[in-house]
Design a protein that fits this description.
about 400 residues, alpha/beta, Rossmann fold, 4 domains, six-stranded mixed beta sheet, four-stranded antiparallel beta sheet, 15 helices, 12 strands, binds guanosine-5'-triphosphate, binds magnesium ion
């Protein structure tokens, strides 16, 4: 509990708040009306008046009505972790896509709380938890908010389609896609910059990156890949955000390889890793190729990390550029695992086979002749034998793709 509170403090600092104090409540059971019980309420009210506090943040999710009773009892603004994270996202969003996604998430959050927000407007303007759609937005009634959400979704669809087209184009060019994922602040952007010689903002704050950045890289001067840096994950990531950021996160869903960046110098790295894996599971990505990149080893002393070596693990320091060549080697070997470049012929009129190759392999070259299609493609080995029985003619069998 202290750990998640420490993280909440980090989040609050990232949002620009000054943290005055922390209170831990041991609850036998959650009070359905006011979340905490009367004794605690009085204790917190006392702290508020002594220290001149104007915002209380709960680490757990509050229902709209609990939120309201807490505000009434404490006479200050009360928000929960989700609202805080939404607020940080609102402050960080730069691209039009990011802004739309955040606004959508905020509206989803606001909708069931609309009445509470109304009464609030009279008393308070601005401050944490109110940035984003802004006061004018809140003057709209529910119906108009729904209307607005619908429009935002349409806009998102359009941007999403463009993104998908670009992605399909890259697929056609048979360039492997690698996406960096991981807990916020684990060092994704630092690693991205190292690998691509870019200058994406990397900072010691939570959610420094919101918009995915994509760059082409050439590993070892020969193998081209497309690398994407993405938004970080966190415990209790609000559902609205996952929902709204689906199109961005889709980048991860269609990747050939995920680099799961883990800050192994953080004492809580194991629980952060699990939290990330939970989000990945929610996105349906756990079955994917994942390489675990244990970052920030420069902060560890010899023998501190007792993980065994494995083909799916690599230990690096993105900041100091340590072990990056090992990382690149692993990336190359994972991506060529189980795949081969094969020259083959398909009888004309076998659209079904052509579709299979498109779906499961990567076509590097193809030529349409009078009664057959000849092509060079990178294919999963275990499938080739099956396909041969169906009419595939293998002309030439090269070794691995790289
Ligand atoms: N000591 C050390 N610090 C690192 C290393 N890699 C990254 N950092 C620091 O960790 C902090 C976070 O790095 P980022 O690259 O912004 O992390 P991120 O995963 O992109 O974070 P978000 O975009 O906020 O999710 C920065 O202060 C980096 O300088 C490393 O290998 N060693
Ligand atoms: Mg980042």
């Amino acid at each position: 509990m202290e750990d998640t509170l420490a993280e909440l403090q980090q989040l609050a600092l990232s949002a620009g708040a000054k943290v005055i104090g922390q209170v831990i409540c041991r609850l036998e059971r959650i009070n359905p009306k006011s979340f905490i019980n009367k004794g605690k309420m009085e204790e917190i009210a006392q702290t508020i008046s002594v220290s001149n506090i104007n915002l209380v943040i709960f680490d757990d999710e509050l229902s709209p009505s609990q939120n309201k009773s807490l505000e009434q009892a404490l006479c200050v603004r009360v928000i929960d972790r989700r609202a805080l994270i939404l607020d940080i996202f609102a402050k960080r969003a730069r691209s039009s896509e990011g802004k739309i996604q955040v606004e959508l998430a905020q509206l989803m959050y606001i909708l069931p709380r609309l009445t509470r927000m109304w009464t609030h407007l009279e008393r308070q303007k601005g401050g944490i938890g109110l940035k984003g759609p802004g006061e004018t937005q809140l003057e709209l009634d529910r119906r108009m908010i729904r209307e607005k959400m619908r429009r935002l979704k349409t806009d998102l669809k359009r941007i999403e389609n463009t993104r998908r087209l670009q992605r399909d184009q890259r697929r056609k060019n048979a360039v492997p896609q690698i996406v960096l994922v991981g807990y916020t602040n684990s060092g994704k952007s630092t690693l991205f910059n190292r690998l691509t010689s870019s200058e994406v903002v990397a900072a010691d704050q939570l959610f420094a990156t919101l918009d995915p950045t994509t760059r082409r890289v050439k590993f070892e001067d020969r193998v081209e890949m497309v690398l994407t840096d993405s938004v970080g994950f966190i415990r209790k990531l609000p559902h609205e955000l996952i929902e709204a950021f689906k199109s961005t996160l889709e980048e991860a869903m269609t990747a050939d390889l995920l680099l799961h960046v883990i800050d192994c110098s953080d004492p809580l790295w194991e629980s952060h890793k699990r939290a990330t894996e939970e989000v990945l599971a929610e996105l349906g990505c756990l079955e994917k190729n994942i390489l675990e990149v244990y970052n920030k080893i420069d902060r560890l002393s010899e023998g501190q990390l007792t993980l065994a070596q494995s083909t799916r693990r690599v230990f690096v320091s993105a900041r100091e550029g340590r072990n990056l060549s090992v990382l690149v080697q692993k990336i190359l070997s994972i991506l060529s695992e189980g795949r081969r470049v094969i020259r083959l012929m398909l009888p004309q009129g076998r659209g079904d086979l052509l579709a299979l190759v498109h779906r499961e392999g990567k076509i590097l070259e193809q030529e349409f002749e009078a009664d057959f299609v000849s092509m060079t493609a990178e294919l999963p080995i275990q499938r080739v034998e099956q396909w041969k029985k169906q009419g595939f003619v293998v002309v030439d069998d090269f070794q691995s793709g790289f």
